[in-house]
């Protein structure tokens, strides 16, 4: 860690490992690539930039820049060189950043681009949507330029809902938000194309210590405690709407103290983590792991008994096609890995034929369509027309492990 550097440029406080969520720590490594970029502002208005290695949580550097000239209230990072910041009077500024390995500066003074921005929190999802909360109302905006100049570039204001009384707010992906609450819950929200939303409780307690919580994507979460310690976590399958697979690195924090920024924001979409090539196909809570051993009644495949309406997710990257007949509302993914994955008997499809999906992406919901005797998900893997047993792959993904190559999976022994 660069503790000496940080000590020289930031006010250090005393951190406490016990202030972080009470979950057993694991080895402080993660199969992640990219670089985590965090912008922030100190209480005196100076801009900060920090870079973190996503695979081990080590802070690579922290730079302190000039005074912004106002008291920051909320911040969202659009891209590496552009940050949106509001002040306590409700003015929205665009901050154009210029940085290298040794210095952090501004291209010019912050550009005022709007008034009436009384939001207490802001975050950008990296896919054109800026989110903020004001008085418990969650609001969505469309950002149409990398360097917006005013309302013509940040518009289409849409109120998503009220009751969003949150301690923090950050984006973890395309129209996905994470937040913690004063009573310690870790929450996720997903916003659909029509402005509707759904929420999920990832963790029921233990996250109240974090005053700031940010995510660069990839299932990585960085939390700053009131004592100034920063801790990092990896949600192995961020698409499953469950926190049971979050890996806690409490024994190796980014820093035990020193993070005194009053606002903090992550550049979105800058980290990719393992499980990045494959994802579990159901919510973790849908069935116990023991059911992933069940043999199929006819051939190499698996029938997983889940209620109608259970979300199903893409196991890997590939192109979608529809399969009907006995599969009812079936979906086939022609995987980038050369394998074909079939999801049978869905109650509804949630992706279009011809679409390209990524691991963990929502495909639709399980059901009882086609030749089916009860609600379940039929899942099978084919390579060159040969069916392979999917049970071992599903168990690995359930456990948060990288699965063996589909071509090495058995072709028999998983049916009766």
TrEMBL record:
<dbReference type="Pfam" id="PF01551">
    <property type="entry name" value="Peptidase_M23"/>
</dbReference>
<keyword id="KW-0732">Signal</keyword>
<feature type="domain" description="M23ase beta-sheet core">
    <location>
        <begin position="301"/>
        <end position="386"/>
    </location>
</feature>
<protein>
    <submittedName>
        <fullName>Uncharacterized protein</fullName>
    </submittedName>
</protein>
<dbReference type="Pfam" id="PF14517">
    <property type="entry name" value="Tachylectin"/>
</dbReference>
<dbReference type="InterPro" id="IPR016047">
    <property type="entry name" value="M23ase_b-sheet_dom"/>
</dbReference>
<dbReference type="InterPro" id="IPR023294">
    <property type="entry name" value="Tachylectin2"/>
</dbReference>
<feature type="signal peptide">
    <location>
        <begin position="1"/>
        <end position="24"/>
    </location>
</feature>
<dbReference type="InterPro" id="IPR011055">
    <property type="entry name" value="Dup_hybrid_motif"/>
</dbReference>
<feature type="domain" description="Tachylectin 2">
    <location>
        <begin position="113"/>
        <end position="241"/>
    </location>
</feature>
<dbReference type="InterPro" id="IPR050570">
    <property type="entry name" value="Cell_wall_metabolism_enzyme"/>
</dbReference>
């Amino acid at each position: 860690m660069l503790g000496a550097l940080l000590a020289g440029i930031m006010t250090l406080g005393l951190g406490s490992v016990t202030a972080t969520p009470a979950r057993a720590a694991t080895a402080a490594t993660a199969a992640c690539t990219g670089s985590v970029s965090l912008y922030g502002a100190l209480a005196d208005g100076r801009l900060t930039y920090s870079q973190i290695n996503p695979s081990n949580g080590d802070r690579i550097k922290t730079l302190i820049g000039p005074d912004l000239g106002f008291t920051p209230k909320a911040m969202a990072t659009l891209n590496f060189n552009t940050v949106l910041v509001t002040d306590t009077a409700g003015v929205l500024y665009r901050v154009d950043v210029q940085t290298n390995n040794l210095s952090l500066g501004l291209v010019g003074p912050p550009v005022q681009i709007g008034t009436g921005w009384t939001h207490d929190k802001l975050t950008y999802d990296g896919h054109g949507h800026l989110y903020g909360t004001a008085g418990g109302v969650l609001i969505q905006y469309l950002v149409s330029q990398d360097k917006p100049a005013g309302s013509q570039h940040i518009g289409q204001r849409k109120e998503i809902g009220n009751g969003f009384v949150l301690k923090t707010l950050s984006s973890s992906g395309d129209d996905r938000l994470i937040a913690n609450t004063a009573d310690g819950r870790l929450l996720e929200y997903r916003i659909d194309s029509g402005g509707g939303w759904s929420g999920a409780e990832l963790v029921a307690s233990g996250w109240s210590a974090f005053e700031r919580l940010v995510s660069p994507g990839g299932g990585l979460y960085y939390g700053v405690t009131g004592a100034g310690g920063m801790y990092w976590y990896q949600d192995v399958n961020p698409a499953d709407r469950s926190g049971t697979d979050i890996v806690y690195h409490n024994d190796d924090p980014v820093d035990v103290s020193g993070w005194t920024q009053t606002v903090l924001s992550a550049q979105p979409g800058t980290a990719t983590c393992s499980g990045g090539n494959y994802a579990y196909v159901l919510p973790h809570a849908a069935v116990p792991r023991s059911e992933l051993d069940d043999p199929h009644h006819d051939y190499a495949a698996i029938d997983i008994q889940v209620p109608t309406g259970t979300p199903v997710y893409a196991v890997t990257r590939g192109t979608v096609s529809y399969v009907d007949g006995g599969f009812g509302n079936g979906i086939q993914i022609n995987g980038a890995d050369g394998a074909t994955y079939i999801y049978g008997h869905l109650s509804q499809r949630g992706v279009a034929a011809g679409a390209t999906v990524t691991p963990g992406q929502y495909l639709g919901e399980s059901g009882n369509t086609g030749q089916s005797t009860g609600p379940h998900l039929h899942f099978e893997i084919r390579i060159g027309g040969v069916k392979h047993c999917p049970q071992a792959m599903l168990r690995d993904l359930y456990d948060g492990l990288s699965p063996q190559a589909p071509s090495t999976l058995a072709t028999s022994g998983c049916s009766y």
